[in-house]
Fold this protein.
Amino acid sequence: MPSPNEIKAELLRRAAAIGFDDCRIAPATAPRHREEFRAWLEAGCAAEMDWIARGAEKRSDPQKVLAGARSVIVLALNYWQGANKTEERVGQGGRIARYAWGDDYHEIMEEKLRELDSYLTAAGGCQKIYVDAGPVLERDFAAEAGIGWHGKSTMLLNRQLGTWFFLGEIFTTLELPFDPPQVARCGSCTRCIEACPTGAISAPHQLDSRRCISYLTIELKGSIPVELRSLIGDRIYGCDDCLDVCPWNRFAQVSREAEFSARPAVTQMRLRDFLALTEERFREIFRGSPIKRIKRRGLLRNVCVALGNVGTRDDLPALTTAACDHEPLVAEHAAWAIEQINERSRRDGLLHVQDPTNQRRSETEFRYADSPRRSSSTAEAGAFPT
Ligand code: B12
Ligand code: SF4
Ligand code: SF4
């Protein structure tokens, strides 16, 4: 049998060979922030994600995940596709969070993790693998293993990858040499907190899902609270604002995974084109994409909110059809969007009449004047956190 050091060396070699960007090991002990996690649940910050509370016991004790677990191997996979692509689409196609531009990371990572699992089984271990969906506080194990540190946005930050990476874990009964945690490097920076359009980061390391656009556009199944709709702007799936502003993303390198590159639906469709999608066409376009999870009804709901915020009178015919959609969720949000556009047009008309120079504001100017706060890009980042 190889020694623990030999197993670790071979594991790292294989992880790099199959494309992981980092691989480190933490002890399979109770996660450091389990009490904070409990408090987060009790404060209602998980919103309607009841599945998190259901798995709370396991999330607080790795022995309940895998009896006899000794080590948690944490793997990071970069998905960064280069700068500015989302900004280019502002107001046209609606913004989609970068992690969802290409193929679904769950399947891509699970396949890679299974390869490493086979090696560890041959080395005498018994394993369980997780990507996102398991009852695991992934960022706590990742921080303990030294993959990065807990940013104030709650994102895990890595010195080379910034925030743009996924996490996966292998719980194993093998006792492997552990890696040391890293020191936190946010310093006095608070950009992510300031950039959040909805104030969802209520304090450093505290995220209230009830206000987070990522939650509202992906996890929430029903109607989006009316008071939050205007703050969503043109985001139709997830949100990257607290990631975009992070100065550590200056060091991000384009991912080596071709599967994460953007699909045509993500880069080419205009907002109102999404409203014409049938169930069948939606499935075709988003097969193998994370976006398929929210189904046609979820995507069209989000598109209506975005059009309500940035749309023009040209979008009204498509919205009028959507207001009769067979899904009441879509119909309700379409009716709201029509009201918003009409209201803007009325105000635009008033401004036009009141303006003595008769210089009508351009549609774009008008749109942005009424749109929610926009975040600056990483490229504009000034002070670097110490
Ligand atoms: C539920 C969930 C969400 C929810 C809630 C997010 C949240 N912050 O809790 C919503 C839908 C909002 C969401 C959004 C996003 N998510 Co998400 N999400 C998860 C999931 C499934 C569970 C997170 C969880 O347990 N939350 C409970 C809270 C308490 O835990 P936590 O946020 O991880 O907080 C940790 C630290 O903040 C720390 N902590 C707590 N208090 C304190 C205090 C101090 C002083 C310190 C130092 C630390 C600390 O301990 C906590 C436990 O580790 C994980 C996968 C997993 N199984 O872990 C993915 C995961 C966190 N998500 C991920 C991603 C990519 C996103 C988005 C970027 C997607 C997007 N672009 O729209 C956004 C980012 C929003 C954000 N700022 O976090 C990645 C993050 C990778 C990374 N580099 O960090 C994960 C790890 C999935 C994966 N396998 O890659 N997500
Ligand atoms: S993902 Fe968006 S809404 Fe959620 S905390 Fe970050 S900036 Fe705020
Ligand atoms: S934006 Fe600043 S405070 Fe927020 S995670 Fe990045 S370095 Fe930390």
